[in-house]
Design a protein that fits this description.
The chain is of the alpha+beta class and about 575 residues long. The protein contains 20 helices and eleven strands. The strands form three sheets. Strands 3-4-8-7-6-9 form a six-stranded antiparallel barrel. β6 and β7 form a beta hairpin. α5 runs antiparallel to α8, α11 packs across α12 and α19 runs antiparallel to α20.
Length: about 575
């Protein structure tokens, strides 16, 4: 196996990594702090340098001083590590034809001895990184605000009109969305949405909240109006500037009624039309209009604003988490899986990767920070997909794959789908690898690709084999119960008809029998039994109470008995 082969090579490597006398090859392990050494072999007694292992004849003190302080242990350890790394590199080069997993297992064992890690990236200051990231984020916030305008290159208009708003964020002309001040002294605003009818009239419509209502509206900008309007860049008709909305609160000490369904608490901050920066103090809507303002378009930006606030309020240590520190070179990257960290070898598809891709895609090579970069067509998606396969197949860990764009995720999902689904035609697929299929779950925006959609929870629930088995079992039970019900109804109908002939009002027994046989109101076998038990129970109680009755009384009781049977026909 790969583990056995790696152990065999490690024993050979350990022999190579030992420090030896340059003259006779005897292993030297008696370092006591002086870098001028003597071989312990009585027939050799060579004097040699602990730093470069030069054979210095009978006295190595003069040569060892050329490297620095004779008793510099740090210098000795550094030279020893460099020499061992060089020996390891040469050893791996000599065994380049060994399988990748064997070489990686060998490296893991060697790192344990060397107490070493791969060379760091060129370190940069954590503060410098955070400063650059903060500046980039600030620029992104500004650009996001100005993205509400369709074309900002022509300059900011004197007053805003619909044609200046980006189509993505524009309120369609047949909708009228307004913010109306609820009072003259607070930040409460009422949201009013109207739709134009074919005759030109306008009717007020409720804000979309439920999924069904969302599906009936094809306009993205009208979905989640209430949530979006509370933190967004907004353009009001006729205004000379954009505004950033921010949350507000009710005045302290004032007992104002607040309609959470139709009102929002917001303030407006003017946006500099050239830079996208906030340009002024927060104001209330009633300071720019007493009767309300029509909204031409708005761009919700709560997430990016929350991120900017988090970065602004957090310390450098809070922002630069462990994998990021390793990526920046502030600390050495660490392996995520060691020798015993994988249960099986990598999938056979791993062998189709080139050496560069293998160094990234094997779980044993995975560290807490890796950068995989390259121009289009160099196999980045293929490498990442193979890494996902490796983690899911070789370990007990789950893996989260994030991407800024849907296309990248869909490309990976398409490759994973081929591993676990068998496609009958474009819209129908059978599960061929349940273990892998069950481990993959996707979620994201409504614009996700078809391959990504196959792994969403909703889609998986509809095709899960256990659920399908349950559906089949339910169908089978329903079929059995239906047969039992029909058999019981037929027998009950015959008995009622036969019994009805013996009763004074038995003339309608046939009608009762036919009604029972149809079973329109008798839903199940248990329902039938409960009706029969009820009728029989009442009858038994009636007969027990009238054991010594005369003939006329008995005839009366039989009529009552006949009416009790009628209870079987609701």
């Amino acid at each position: 196996s790969h583990k056995e082969r790696a152990h065999q090579l490690f024993l050979e490597l350990a022999e190579v990594l030992n420090m030896k006398c340059p003259r006779c090859g005897l292993i030297f392990d008696d370092y006591e702090g002086c870098n001028a050494l003597h071989c312990a072999n009585s027939s050799c007694k060579a004097a040699f340098c602990a730093i470069c292992l030069k054979d210095c004849g009978s006295d190595a003190h003069a040569h060892a001083r050329e490297h620095g302080n004779l008793f510099n242990k740090t210098l000795f350890e550094r030279a020893k590590k460099a020499r061992q790394r060089s020996e390891l590199s040469m050893f791996l080069s000599d065994h380049a034809d060994e399988p990748f997993e064997v070489k990686e297992l060998l490296k893991i064992k060697a790192e344990a001895i060397l107490n070493d890690v791969p060379l760091r990236l060129k370190a940069q200051s954590a503060q410098s990184f955070v400063d650059k990231a903060t500046a980039s984020l600030k620029d992104a916030v500004h650009r996001d605000r100005l993205a509400l305008l369709g074309d900002s290159s022509t300059g900011f208009p004197r007053v805003l009109q619909s044609e200046q708003i980006s189509p993505r964020n524009q309120i369609p002309s047949d909708y009228n969305l307004c913010l109306i001040p609820s009072s003259a002294s607070s930040d409460r605003c009422r949201i009013q949405l109207k739709q134009q009818q074919s005759d030109g009239s306008w009717i007020r419509i409720e804000l979309p909240e439920k999924q069904k209502e969302k599906e009936s509206l094809t306009v993205d900008s009208l979905i989640n109006v209430r949530g979006g309007i509370q933190c967004c860049t907004v353009a009001f008709e006729g205004e000379p500037t954009l505004y950033q909305t921010v949350g507000a609160s009710l005045p302290i000490g004032k007992n104002e009624a607040y309609d959470k369904e139709n009102e929002v608490l917001i303030k407006l901050i003017p946006v500099n039309p050239r830079t996208g920066d906030l340009d002024g103090d927060p104001i209330s809507l009633n300071q720019i209009s007493r009767i309300g303002k029509r909204i031409l378009g708005f761009n919700p930006n709560r997430r990016i604003m929350m991120l900017a606030k988090h970065v602004q309020q957090s310390s450098v240590d809070e922002l630069v988490f462990e994998p990021l520190r390793a990526y920046l070179g502030l600390e050495p990257p660490t392996r995520l899986f060691c020798e015993g960290g994988i249960s099986v070898s990598a999938p056979v598809s791993f062998d189709q990767l080139n050496q560069q891709q293998q160094r990234v895609a094997h779980p044993l090579a995975l560290r807490n920070a890796i950068e995989c970069a390259g121009p289009p067509g160099t196999g980045k998606t293929k490498t990442i997909t193979e890494l996902i396969r490796g983690v899911l197949n070789c370990t007990e860990y789950d893996i989260i794959v994030l991407s800024e764009r849907n296309g990248a995720i869909d490309a990976i999902a398409e490759k994973i789908a081929k591993d676990c689904l068998e496609f009958r035609h474009s819209d129908d697929a059978a599960i061929s690898n349940f273990l892998l299929w069950s481990k993959v779950l996707t979620f994201g925006s409504s614009g996700m690709g078809q391959s990504t959609r196959r792994f969403t929870l909703v889609e998986k629930m509809s095709v899960h084999p256990e659920l399908e088995s349950c559906r089949e079992l339910i169908k089978e039970k329903e079929h059995i119960l239906s047969g039992m019900k029909n058999a019981m109804l037929k027998k009950l109908a015959r008995n009622v008809e036969e019994l009805g002939r013996q009763l004074p009002d038995g003339t309608n027994a046939s009608r009762r029998s036919h009604t029972i046989a149809k079973g329109t109101d008798l839903e199940s076998p248990s329902h039938i039994l409960s009706m029969v038990r009820g009728a029989v129970g009442v009858l038994e109680e009636l007969l027990l109470q009238n054991v010594d009755s005369d003939e006329k009384t008995l005839e009366l009781q039989l009529n009552i008995y006949s009416s009790i049977l009628g209870d079987l026909i609701p």
